[in-house]
Task: inverse folding
């Protein structure tokens, strides 16, 4: 990186020059961001697209009213929305058309894919009764697996692994039915290699479900190319779909006909208004969808996805790596004395979209940074997450963040009580 | 009804006089309704409250952005929303504070309450393995029960009853674990008596789950007084929460501590950010909530509920009965020659909020009425549903609807091909 402008010490001017050269820099204008803050929480809740305002007004002023006035005729529109949104996400995760569905929450989608995977395995490998996940996975994922097992009256067993190499040992027993993994770890930011892991899992006749929450929109995942089985992910982080926006679900085409949704209701039934005794699922993708979806929250997802359509994930990943490279180098140059320890891998092939640092006073530092308008994310134990969403984070933001961290540490601001720290928001 | 103004023939003037006397008439102004249509589909999708426009703008312009800027501090706000909305619904269904939660869809809430009820019964009455529902229940409900049973590998069995008296016979076998019933039938509009049915079910040690989709907001349900066990219902019909708005769930206080959500994830965990091995559910109401909720769709529900706070359900039920009385009488007076057959009970104690008529050309008549700006709802087989939402339907609307039906029948308009029928929408 340093070689790019042949400088020895990184400075503000250098960062401004990087922004000037940035092919994605105009996309920041697509978002509403207070100019008094630097928002590094995009892997928790994405920024708000400008177009969201007009879209909600349009929804309110036209669609709801139109739906009333054309009661009989427009049912199709809203049942097609999960598929239409899914098709817009497909290109971001290496999936084909009509393989992705937007509906429900990530947690419910994990439940559904787990039920589908277990149903396939119960036929093919009834002796395999282990469901494997990482001990430090997102607790949501673990809870969903636990409740799935409880619902099956302990017929299956959860095995939590501490390190990736334990996976191979477990697989070798021939007892593993399904493996649930996150592509990018929510805490450490470590990136896993789908191709290698999928091959290993399939060698032992197990199936894999990938949680893409921390990767979709910041890393070009290749689901089909790597021959994954199932994937789930959320739309409110890097995809900027809005608070609590519905999640997505992907199923490998080879499992599509055997896919079974344990929470089926209205919309995945071929004849939803018929009174029938037995469930006949849709023959296609629609069978993924459990029930009515919250339409305005669904519609808002389009705003973020339309911005992705103006660029490509290779450019986004390239900028993501340059932003995190710059932050790592600047932290070494400016904050080496302050006891921060990078826990995200340095190697590009193992690095996700955010950087996590360990510090004994991480929580207090987060609050002091927030008071200075730098929004980061605290995680147990003693971890600060910095997410650099390439669509709206500039190189100068990286420079300014490191300068703010330096000031917080030099002034020992993290010792000030939280309620004394305030910051004003300014959108002008 | 006829006696009220001592008239022999019901006429337009009489209906206008009823509107003038109507204590709820001002509430129609709370809704956006095109003045060129009469909207009788409020039991499918409620009308749009005026306040929805300002609320979405406020959400878009402030809450999303604020949430970014105060990343660390306002998590509580959104996790309290399901409970706050639930407390606003509690008074409409005879529930107490902190017994109702708004989250997920009706289908998922049925799944959750069914899992909870079965878990209670598996301990108390393990021999009871039947789940009873009505054969002509909403197909959603039946599909959810079927998939619940499939997930339990046929440990339980679904019994579909044709008539209410079959329920007692089944209960007498001592094999019934759970009964799922709708308070007001989606098709016939028949109203069930909770008190009598709950007593019968409990005499045989079974539990009951009530589907309130067709009753909430139009009938003063008494869940606690009638000692029901569980209830679910939607917010987008008479409550006017917006397309696909999240649903609600009620649990009798006595089951609250044993309630178990099989789809638990983030938010019903006491320490959602901790990494733990085993699920420890919230000790209170929060354990009902499966996962992140779509916030803007949640917030919109408030608009409709705030209108209910300006009146009471006794006044709403009174107007509902007067509207349906008037429609029945006018249909007899004006349309007796046209072969319509009322299938909703005439007796007030058995009549819900909508009226259903059978007609051999029901589907075609629905379309012809739609072309004349009268929005009704067609259901298989040969049924037209007319929903009279007391908050925004006037007596003059009832008069005009019957006149339009009369014209459609006299002009044989239902024989015209659907694509030749159009109507213009006019909000002026």
Result:
């Amino acid at each position: 990186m340093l070689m790019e402008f042949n400088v020895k010490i990184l400075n503000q001017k250098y960062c401004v020059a990087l922004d000037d050269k940035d092919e994605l820099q105009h996309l920041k204008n697509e978002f509403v961001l207070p100019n008094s803050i630097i928002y590094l929480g995009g892997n928790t809740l994405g920024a708000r697209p400008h177009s969201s305002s007009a879209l909600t007004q349009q929804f309110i002023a036209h669609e709801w009213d139109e739906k009333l006035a054309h009661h009989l005729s427009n049912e199709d529109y809203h049942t097609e929305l999960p598929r239409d949104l899914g098709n817009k996400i497909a290109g971001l995760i290496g999936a084909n058309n009509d393989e992705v569905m937007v509906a429900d929450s990530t947690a419910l989608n994990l439940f559904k894919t787990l039920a589908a995977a277990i149903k396939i395995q119960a036929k093919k490998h009834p002796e395999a009764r282990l469901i494997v996940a990482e001990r430090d996975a997102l607790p949501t994922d673990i809870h969903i697996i636990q409740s799935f097992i409880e619902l099956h009256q302990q017929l299956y067993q959860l095995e939590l692994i501490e390190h990736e190499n334990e996976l191979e040992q477990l697989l070798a027993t021939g007892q593993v039915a399904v493996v649930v993994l996150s592509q990018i770890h929510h805490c450490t930011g470590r990136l896993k290699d789908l191709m290698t892991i999928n091959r290993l899992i399939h060698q032992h006749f197990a199936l894999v479900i990938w949680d893409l929450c921390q990767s979709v929109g910041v890393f070009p995942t290749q689901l089909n190319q790597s021959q994954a089985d199932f994937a789930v992910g959320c739309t409110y982080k890097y995809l900027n779909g809005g608070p609590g926006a519905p999640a997505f679900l992907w199923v490998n085409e080879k499992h599509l006909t055997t896919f079974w949704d344990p929470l089926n209701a209205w919309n995945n039934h071929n004849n939803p208004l018929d009174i029938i005794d037995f469930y006949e699922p849709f023959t296609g993708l629609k069978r993924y969808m459990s029930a009515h979806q919250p339409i305005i929250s669904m519609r808002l997802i389009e705003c973020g996805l339309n911005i992705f359509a103006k660029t490509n994930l290779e450019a986004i990943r390239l900028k993501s790596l340059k932003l995190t490279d710059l932050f790592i180098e600047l932290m070494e140059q400016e904050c080496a004395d302050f006891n921060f320890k990078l826990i995200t891998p340095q190697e590009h092939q193992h690095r996700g979209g955010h950087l996590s640092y360990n510090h004994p006073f991480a929580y207090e530092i987060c609050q002091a940074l927030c008071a200075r308008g730098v929004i980061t994310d605290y995680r147990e134990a003693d971890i600060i997450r910095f997410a650099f969403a390439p669509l709206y984070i500039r190189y100068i933001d990286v420079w300014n963040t490191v300068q703010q961290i330096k000031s917080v540490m030099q002034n020992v601001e993290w010792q000030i009580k939280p309620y004394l720290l305030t910051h004003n928001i300014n959108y002008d």
